[in-house]
Amino acid sequence: MNLNSQITDESEVEKLRRRVEELEEREKQLVKSLRTNKSLHSKILNALPINIFLEDPEGRTMFVNEQVCKAHGVNAEKLEGKTVFDFFPKTIAAKLREIDLEVWEKRTLQTNEVATEFQGKKGHMLTGKTIIHLEESNQDYLLGFGIDITDLKNAEEKITHMAYHDALTGLPNRWFIKSCLKNCHSLPDETQMMKGVLLLDLDHFKVINDSLGHEAGDQLLQAVANRLRGVIQADNVLARFGGDEFIILMQQIVSADEAFEVSKEILKVMKEPFTIYGQKFTISPSIGISLHPIHGEDMENLIKYADLAMYHSKEQGRNCYSLFTPLMKEKALSRMNMLAK
After folding, report:
1. Which long-range contacts (CB under 8 A, 24 or more apart) does 231-235 make?
2. What is the DSSP string of 156-180?
3. pLDDT score recorded for residue 339
4. I need a labelling partner for 267 at 20 to 30 A (CA). Which of 112, 129, 154, 292 fits?
5. Model confidence over 283-298: pLDDT tens digits?
6. Cα–Cα distance for residue pair 147/187, rounded to 1 Å
7. Interatomic CA distance for residues 47 and 66, integer angstroms
8. How far apart are CA 106 and CA 325, in angstroms?
9. Domain residues of the chain, as ranges?
């Protein structure tokens, strides 16, 4: 080998060495970039205050963020490879898996409000799920998120309860009764059962309220509500209709006699004196009764006719009950016409 040839070989070796160093440096930079990107993506996913998870077609968990781990009270290793049946009660897991299968079938984003239970604590979540495809592995996965809406659901339930219940007695209110009867005329009744509406007004309540004060009147209304609760059966609805009026909806009765029996029981329990501020006194009810569908198909008429029957009871001396008759309506119209003249 001559000198020129040796120099050329050394030059090629040096070029090759520098090329290897360049490739190694590029590899280091690429690995660093990948780690940086992975770390950034992980930090983003873990910073989000929502559950994020990835599942394979069999429902096995492939990835969870820190929020999921926090909800379950375990680290990611305890969840990866497991299915919803491993960390949710059976009924909840079955519903979640049903939703998953529907997402796999339709392959579109679907959102649902679902019941959940994390670490024995029940709640509600808004979930969103869709299918994603990874080109690198040529695999499809289910990507999902979950937002805890338990507080929102509880607030909605509280607002709904407040809207349909009386704050003083805790009983359902007139809006609850109206919602019960709103569509009663449109529902088929194969059993030929009737509904009974009993409207109850406390006789001379204003005298007691004015003489002892409104606070005493409120206590009396609460005491009356508690006493009426003992009379009403589970399938009937007791509500405060407003002021000193209570209403009872009997959901299924065969005849008016059943409404009469309840009315008699109410008159009986109301005979026992009430004690307010150390004073004992009795207060009697006047009760009016209307029947669906005999007296009307809609709630407004049923309550209106029960109200007419209740005033008829007052005309009869109070402390009694009356069933609505068309004659009561005619008398009411006659009185109205006289007042209009």
Report:
1. 231/262, 231/265, 231/266, 231/269, 232/262
2. HHHHHHHHHB-TTT--B-HHHHHHH
3. 67
4. 292
5. 999 999 999 999 988 8
6. 38
7. 8
8. 59
9. 47-164, 165-340
251: Cβ–Cβ under 8 A, 6 or more apart, which residues?
Answer: 195, 235, 236, 237
Q: Model confidence over 93-141: pLDDT tens digits? A: 999 999 999 999 999 999 999 999 999 999 999 999 999 998 877 899 9
For domain 165-340, say whether CATH 3.30.70.270 is its number: yes
Furthest C-alpha separation in the chain: 139
Beta strands in the chain (DSSP E): 51-55, 61-64, 110-118, 121-134, 139-148, 194-202, 236-242, 245-253, 274-276, 279-281, 285-292, 321-323
Q: What is the DSSP letter of 254?
A: S
The closest alpha carbon to 244, from 178, 306, 199, belongs to: 199
User: Is the pTM for the entire model greater than 0.70?
Assistant: no
Upstream peptide bond of 293 is cis (omega within 30 degrees of 0): yes
Dist. CA 315–CA 98, nearest whole Å: 62
What is the dihedral sign for C-alpha 311, 317, 319, 321? negative
If you search the block for the tokens 């359902």, which residue do you land on?
A: 172
Amino acid at 152: L
Question: Could you tell me if 237 and 249 are in contact, meaning their C-beta atoms sit under 8 angstroms apart?
Answer: yes
Asked if 302 contacts 290 with a C-beta cutoff of 8 angstroms, the reply is yes
pLDDT at 34: 47
Q: DSSP 3-state assignment of 113?
A: strand
CA–CA separation, 260 and 95 (whole Å): 47
Give CA–CA dist 310/234, Å, rounded: 24
Using DSSP bridges, classify how beta strands 321-323 and 285-292 pair: parallel, antiparallel or unpaired. Answer: parallel
**Is residue 185 predicted with pLDDT exceeding 60?**
no
Phi-psi domain of 139 (left: phi exceeds 0; alpha: psi -120 through 50; beta: other): beta
**Long-range contacts, 61-69 (Cβ 8 Å, 24+):** 62/141, 68/146
